[in-house]
Amino acid sequence: MKYTNYPFSIINYQFSIFNYEEEISLEHCAQSNCGRGYCPGRRIRNLIVYRRMRTVTLIVVHCSATREGQSFDFEQCRRDHIRHRRFRDIGYHFYLTRDGEIHCGRPLEQVGAHCRNHNRHSIGVCYEGGLDRQGQPKDTRTLEQKASLVALLRELKRMFPQALIVGHRDLNPMKACPCFEAAKEYLF
Questions:
Q1: What angle do CA 54, 55, 58 make, to 5 degrees?
Q2: Taken in order 184, 186, 65, 87, is the CA torsion positive or negative?
Q3: Labelling 4: which of 41, 95, 102, 137 has CA 20 to 30 A away?
């Protein structure tokens, strides 16, 4: 989904214990054929029901390890995860392209596939980039990505106040991902 109007609310139907109707508006769904009932640019009236949500203790920030000047959009990442890593879908819950567009990957109630030994209790957020032209780790986030990432992480932190925001390398020292100090930068 592309969230262009801030502040926004991310699929808050999953967290209600009571049945009620809420009207939400989504600008664009990157997976418009995903069957979740959301369509591009329409106002949708949803019956909100309680769904059992898993416990989330971490929000893990990743980079796609894409060189500067190269494109690796949401659909390319999704295809890579399905074809080459043999995942059933993209491993991340959210993917940010260089233009700042936020794409929804796996639903929040589903376990991701982005950080070994931490997937069950985390949400994976990935930004396109992370390498310089020579393939060395570098913070290549655009201003649009930085703004979208802050807005997304603030909303996730509001939804999961107990969750810590960390970079992939904070959980696996062998990784450079996300190529900046996420834990220090996002102390909300």
A1: 120
A2: positive
A3: 137
